[in-house]
Amino acid sequence: MKHLLCILLLCSSTMVQAQSYQEYVKMAMEALEKDSLHQAEALFRKALEKDPAIKSNAILFDYLGQIQERRGELKDALDSYSMGHNISPTTLSILLNRASLYMRMNNEKRALVDYNEVLDLNADHPEALFFRAYIYMQEHNYKQARTDYEHLIRLEPNNVEAQLGLVLLNDKDNRPREAMEQMNALIQLYPARAQLYVTRAGMEQDRQQHEVALHDYNQAIELDPTNAEYYIARGTYYLNVKKKKLAKADFTQAVKYGADEKDVAALLNEYSNK
Q1: Using one digit for the tens of pLDDT, what is the confidence trace for 182-215?
Q2: 225: three-class secondary structure by DSSP
Q3: How far apart are CA 61 and CA 67, in angstroms?
Q4: Distance CA 253, CA 247 (A)
Q5: What's the maximum distance between 2 C-alpha atoms anywhere in the chain?
Q6: 10 Å Cβ neighbour count for 211?
Q7: Who's near 149: CB < 8 A, 6+ residues apart?
Q8: Burial 220-256 (b: 16+ CB within 10 A, else e)
Q9: How large is the angle between the packed helices 176-189 and 194-206, nearest 10 degrees?
Q10: What is the reported pTM?
Q11: Which residues have C-beta within 8 Å of that of residue 260, sequence separation ≥ 6?
Q12: What DSSP string describes 36-56?
């Protein structure tokens, strides 16, 4: 009888502990919905303390990483994602979040490792295919980049970003005519996408086609007049064609719409010294 009582007490204790874990997680998720990041983090950590060995803690570390990343605590976020990955190496969300953070930290080699792991688990994962193709292209591994972009386009024929990536790849891979034909076709399909005009303008500028490049920069800004990056792009074009006054006007607009004033000043100074 005494032995049975001990078993019942032990089971009861385990149930209370499990319930407390669930309650902490529930309260943490509610705090997240209210954007109370510090409270959510504290509650997730309480849950981790309650049951440090449970496999679902991998997801809690994933949430912690996202919270820390939103607060700009990138190293802590990286540690949290890695803790989650150690617990559950096949959880895709953790791999993708860590890879994305590595990209944000300009550590493309480590990001590539994570994207490879994702694609080992799911060979058709669109996000991993896109970013792996981008990394390969940056590494001048054009063959592998092309394989990933074409794979993604087969999966998602209307994926504009993937099609644009293939255009830029062709432009880098000594296929300038094919790249421009593809770019023109993209703009015909999506005439309201400002980013496409900026991209084509950059390609035209590289080809010394200054008048059509300016037309495309103007078109992009007309479509999206509050995009700071477009003013920087056109301002840089003006600097290249020795129109410094117009460049300064565009850089002023860029700062107005959110560009970093120091970065813009450094860019202007760089061209002034050429």
Answers
A1: 999 999 999 999 999 999 999 999 999 999 999 9
A2: coil
A3: 10
A4: 10
A5: 95
A6: 7
A7: 129, 130, 133, 162, 165, 166, 169
A8: bbebbeebbbbbbbbbbbbbeeeeeeebeebbebbbe
A9: 160
A10: 0.85
A11: none
A12: -HHHHHHHHHHHHHH-TT-TT
